Amino acid sequence: MAEMSAAIQGARQRRRYFVKPDLQTKYAFMFVLAIGVGLNLGVILALLAPLIRGASWWYSVLYGVLALLMIAVVATISIVFTHKIAGPIYKIERSFRQIMDEKDLSLRIFLRTDDELQELAEEINRLLEHLNHTVMLEQQKSTAILAKLDYLMAALAQPEKPEEADVLLQLNTIRQHLEDSGLKYKLK
Question: Which of 15, 56, 141, 167 can bridge 181 by disulfide, Cβ–Cβ 3.0-4.6 Å?
């Protein structure tokens, strides 16, 4: 029932097409601009076509050069505009791989100031900070529990052994600490 409700809610949320209006508007404008440049160059080439039919071979060469120039301009505009998103995505992916390979939650994602996805990088950095802090606390708890276990094991190894009730009490305390520790995240 809960899964069905989540699916219905997810379907409703997808109807919001402008989730990041500033970003989407900017790239929609750039897309329209690239198409406009392409169409205008296409119209120019279409107007030149009748001149080429009855003219010398130089007009054919000029027509071909203009067609290639049109393709190059539109391709360049597209690459420059999409790099503002593709570059940060590449950087974020590379940073994730580095974090996983090095098992280093202290690493952060840094993008150039004019790149898109700055907000995403900041949220990921906040998540990494939270995970780093949580794992550090868990490691400190584990270290304390291990120290208590080492103390008990050393005490049991001595000829004058501590009372059994005292050892059981301390082991029970350690057991409770172990139950209380551990990351409290939902796992599947």
Answer: 141
